[in-house]
Amino acid sequence: MKKVSVLLSICFLVLILSSAGNAQNKPINVALFNPIQIFPENNSIAGIRINIIYGKNISMSGLDWGLANHVGTGGFTGVQWGLINIDDGNVTGWQNGAINLSNRDVKGFQWGWFNTGKHVSGFQLGLVNMAESLYGLQIGLINFIKTGGQFPVFPIVNWSF
Predict the structure, then answer these.
(1) In sequence order, which residues have a C-beta less than 8 Å from that of residue 12 and are 6 or more positions away?
(2) Quick check: 74 and 91 in contact, CB under 8 A?
(3) Which of 117, 141, 144, 157 is 20 to 30 A from 22, comparing alpha carbons?
(4) Cis amide prior to 155 (ω within 30 degrees)
């Protein structure tokens, strides 16, 4: 447990120090619910964001953790853990939540009960997986690929390479 705490602390410091060079990005944000958060939603966060109930910012890179995480059109890069993850811009990284709603391109890994993305390049693991187009693999109870998939709808596993 001590090793995990040290590793998380180091990761946190690296994220904050790497974002310090960009004056537009805020290194940390804590939200009870939008608009009750440290920095308003029109700010970009590069570091860590904790959303106790619901938080929203225009863009986010780093660790996004909370009950409901919402990133605007500026996109998300990093790890997103929450009950509900909503992204209006492109996503690069790992989304882990009951519901992962990505309205644009996803590059990486989505893990949840319901996963969706416009153009997905990577891996979706969940009960229901949806992609407009996919370059990768879906594993779930039911998998949808609107265009270019091996099958438009298929149970257990679906793919497109």
Answers:
(1) 47, 48, 63
(2) no
(3) 117
(4) no
Question: One-letter amino acid identity for 49?
Answer: R
User: 25 forms bridges with which residues in the sheet?
Assistant: 44
Q: Residue 42 gets which letter from DSSP?
A: T
Q: Which residues pair with 133 in a beta bridge?
A: 119, 147
Domain ranges of the chain: 2-160
Q: Match 């939540």 to its residue by tokens.
A: 97
pLDDT in tens, the chain (161 residues): 666 554 555 555 445 544 444 558 999 999 999 999 999 999 999 999 999 999 999 999 999 999 999 999 999 999 999 999 999 999 999 999 999 999 999 999 999 999 999 999 999 999 999 999 999 999 999 999 999 888 999 999 999 99
- Separation between Cα atoms, residue 82 and residue 69, nearest integer Å: 6
